[in-house]
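Q: I have 174 residues here and want to know how they pack in 3D. Can you give me a structure?
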Amino acid sequence: VLWRPTANPGADSSILSAKSYTYQADEAQGPVTFIDVGSEGYQCNAKTIIHGVSECMQCQNRFTESKTVQVCTLESIPRRPEHCVTFVKIKMWEQLKPFGTHYNDKGVEVPVPVDGDNVEHIAWIAQRSQDRLVQFKLPGSIDFTFTQGVVKNSIAAVGFTNATVAAVMVGEMF
């Protein structure tokens, strides 16, 4: 049995109107369960919504702007200086291993992790980020303070988040 979404005529925001529905259950068969994932961006949340039992999506006020960027955007078409810094921190650090490697607790050789308070680490990232900014002809410049701010606020990779959300979603199903 399907719930039939009905457009919400009072919604001002296209994001809200695209995600906000009034669900009407089929009278003969009853409502079905709806599992909400992704409405909070990359917050890694999943919630089961049962018509008439749990709080509806409109009542939750859960819709937030995503503050993340896909790795493919960072790699091929960065649009902001932050994208350059994040790419260098995530991809180039892993590939170039500028400060060597060490063995993690599982015995796997991995790059020395980025330390947001290490002057040498931030300076290395800032220089490569500025080079990338010039390469893609983006306006502005990247300095030490800007780089450190971006590095300390970076989020986990999207693929990891998607896998975690999928696992939470399966858990919600049972």
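Q: Anything worth noting?
A: The longest helix spans residues 119-135. The radius of gyration is 22 Å.
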